[in-house]
C-alpha cells in the first residue's frame, strides 16, 4: 500500500483518536485475565501427554530390547551425558559459540528484511520490480547456497553469518510487506481526514497496525536462523552445537548426539517463548480479541 504525501496538520487541528492508539494500554477485567490464565493452564496440560508417551515408548524400547542401545541409547543414558556435558562446561562452550553466530546472522537478516519488506509494502513500484527476484531468491533453500558461498567467502565465520542471515531475511521481509499491505483502509482514511503528514501516517497508523505480523516475521526469522545454524555447523564447522552432533556421530556416541539434539530443542523452545512474551508486552495496548 503506497502512502501518499499529506499536508501537515495545523495548530488548530482536532486531536485524532489515533494519537492515543499505541499509547493507551487497556487494562483487562479480572474475569478476562482469569479466563486467559485458565486457558493457558489447560493448553499447557494438554501439551504434556504426547511427549510423555514418546518418552515412555523410548524407555520401553530400551528396556525390552526393541532397538539396540548402540543405535538408540535409553533416556537415562542420554540425560546422564547431558548433565555431564553441562557440568564439564563443554556444552556451554558450544552453545555460546552457536548463540554468537545465530544472533550475528539474525541481526543482519533482520535489518535487511525490515528494509526490503518495508520498501515492498510501501512502494507498489518497487514491489513490482523487486518481488519476482526476491521470490526466486527465497525459493532456494539455505543448503543450496552453501557450495557457491564456500567458493566466495570460504568456510570461516562469514559463511555462517551469510547463510543464517538468508534464513532470517525471507520470513521477516515477507511478513513486513504483508503487514503493511494489510493495514485497514479505514484507519488510513481517518488519518487523511485529520491531515496526517506522511511521517505521522507511518508512525501513528501504519507501523502500529502492522506490528503484529512484523513481529511474527521476527519470530519465524529467528526460528529459521537457529535451524540454519545447526545445518551449517553440521557441514562446515569445528565448534558449536552442530559440530558436537557430528562429533558424536563420528565416534558413534549416540548418547552425545541425542544430548546435543536435546540442547538444540531446549534452546529453540526458550527463544520462541521469550519472543512470545516480548510480543505480548509489545502489543499490550491492543484490546482483547483484536
Write the layout of secondary structure elements.
Elements: H1 30-46, H2 49-63, H3 75-88, H4 90-122, H5 124-139, H6 146-153, H7 157-181, H8 185-193, H9 198-235, H10 241-250, H11 254-282
InterPro entries: MetI-like, MetI-like_sf
Membrane topology: Multi-pass membrane protein
Main location: membrane
Overview of the structural elements:
Residues 1-20 are annotated as: Disordered. InterPro entries: MetI-like (IPR000515), MetI-like_sf (IPR035906). One of its GO terms (biological process) is alkanesulfonate transmembrane transport. Its main location: membrane. The protein is an all-alpha fold. The chain has a domain at 93-121 and 135-284: MetI-like (MetI-like fold), CATH 1.10.3720.10. 74% of the residues lie in helices and 0% in strands. It is globular. It starts with 29 loop residues before the first helix and ends in an 8-residue tail after the last helix. Mean pLDDT is 81; it is low at 1-26.
